[in-house]
Structure formats: C-alpha cells, structure tokens
Inverse folding.
C-alpha cells in the first residue's frame, strides 16, 4: 500500500512538468500557422507571384513518400510552376482541413536556435480535373518549415501523388 501511495504522489508531482514541456514544444496557435494558411489561399488563387512571395529563395519541396533514397527535391521556380499548372488543370479547387484535425506548430531545439519552426497540416484538397472530369479529394498531410522571416523554407508532402514532369529552366 505504501508503494502505491508513494508512486501516486511521485506521479502527481511529475505530471504537470510533462504538460508544461509539451506546451512549449507543440502549439496550435502561432504566427507560422497563419503563414501556412495564407500560402494555401495564394496557392488556390493560382497567382505565381503571390505564391512565390511566401517562399524563401532557397525553398525546397520534397515528396515524403518518395522511393528515392536521396530525394533532391524541387526548387522554388519549378514548384511555383507546378502549383500554377495544377491550379489551371483543376476547376473549383478548395482546400479544407481534415475533420477533427488542426495545424500544429512543432519546434525542435536546433530550429529554435535558428528561429525556425515547423507546421504540420492535415488538409483535403477538392476539385475537378478540367480535362478528364475526374474528382480530386484526397487527404494531404504536409510539413512546412517556416524561416525567421515568416517565409516557407521547406515543404514535405506526404500524399501519394504522381510527379508532374516539368522542363527545368
């Protein structure tokens, strides 16, 4: 009985510190989340200049589900063209949050030192392909790395999609 009582007293003293640490690392309200939401609005608009304005010059986009051992990613100019082309092909494109999920801010120690933060989102893009008429509706989990200048430095997409082949320029 003494062991149970001692364990419960110890656990009660430790539990608040767990909650306090977690709230310092993960959060649901942060300016970086607003940056991501504003970027998604720009992506839906299909305006290449507006899309590019949310990205750093050294921006990279990666497929988190790539089978390649070393995914080289897609740079800023190619990514902007990819989003623009995708928007031109899809009619009535909207992006909605996945039910009962919300964006979260995650900050790692190294990123904290660099004044960078990660934002995890779970969204569902919806639309119709203008050529084929096929409906688009697939969950799209993504990680966004936001720089200290409130611009997107990295996007990692975890949706299983085909890569659109665009010529490099």
């Amino acid at each position: 009985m003494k062991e149970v009582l001692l364990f419960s007293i110890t656990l009660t003293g430790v539990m608040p510190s767990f909650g306090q640490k977690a709230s310092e690392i993960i959060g649901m309200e942060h300016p970086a989340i607003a940056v991501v939401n504003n970027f998604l609005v720009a992506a839906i608009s299909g305006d290449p200049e507006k899309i590019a304005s949310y990205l750093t010059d050294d921006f990279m986009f990666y497929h988190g589900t790539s089978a390649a051992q070393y995914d080289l990613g897609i740079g800023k100019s190619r990514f902007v063209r990819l989003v623009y082309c995708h928007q031109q092909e899809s009619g009535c494109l909207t992006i909605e949050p996945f039910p009962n999920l919300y964006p979260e801010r995650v900050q790692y120690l190294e990123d904290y030192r660099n004044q960078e933060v990660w934002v995890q989102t779970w969204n569902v893009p919806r639309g119709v392909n203008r050529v084929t008429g096929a409906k688009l509706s697939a969950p799209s989990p993504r990680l966004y790395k936001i720089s200290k200048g409130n611009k997107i430095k990295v996007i990692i997409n975890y949706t299983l999609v085909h890569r659109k082949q665009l010529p490099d320029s």
